[in-house]
Amino acid sequence: xxxxxxxxxxxxxxxxxxxxxxxxxxxxxxxxxxxxxxxxxxxxxxxxxxxxxxxxxxxxxxxxxxxxxxxxxxxxxxxxxxxxxxxxxxxxxxxxxxxxxxxxxxxxxxxxxxxxxxxxxxxxxxxxxxxxxxxxxxxxxxxxxxxxxxxxxxxxxxxxxxxxxxxxxxx
Length: 171
Fold this sequence. Notes:
By secondary structure, the chain is of the alpha+beta class. It is built from seven helices and five strands; from the N terminus they run αααβββββαααα. Strands 1-3-2 form a three-stranded mixed β-sheet, covered by helices on one side. A two-stranded antiparallel sheet has the order 4-5. A hairpin with a 2-residue loop joins strand 2 (80-85) and strand 3 (88-94). The protein is globular and about 60 Å long. The N and C termini lie far apart (62 Å).
C-alpha cells in the first residue's frame, strides 16, 4: 500500500489502529465497504453537513459508516450509540427522534452524527480515556466540548448536577 492509498483511506474515515498490520487494516476496510453496500442506512442527505464539518475539523469525510434509526437498547438520555465489535465498527444507531432533526430539543442530528462518526473513524483504537475528548470536539456548543468528556458514565452526571444546584441556592 502506498502513502497515497493510505491517505485516501484515512480521508474516507478508515484510520489504521496501533499494532494493526496492513492485511488486517485492508480486511477491515473491505468488510466495512461490503456491509455498507448490502444494507439500507440513513439517507445520504443526513451526512452532508457532517462530512463537510468533519473534513474541516479532522480532515476526514466518513463515507462507509452504517447508520440506522432505532430506539432499541438506548437509554432515554442517549441520542445515539456507536456499536464497535473489537476494533471494527458494526454500526451507528441513532434515536428515532433524530429523523426530524433533533431530540429533546438539545441534540441535533448533525451534532450527534458527527460525534458518533468520530468514534467510528477511531474504532481501531482502544483508548477509552481519550475517545470522548476527540468526539466532543465535534460539538457546536463550547460547554459540551468542555464538559462532555468529563462525564463518561451516566451516573456521573447526577453528583455534578446536585452540586451545581446546591451551589446555586446555598452560597
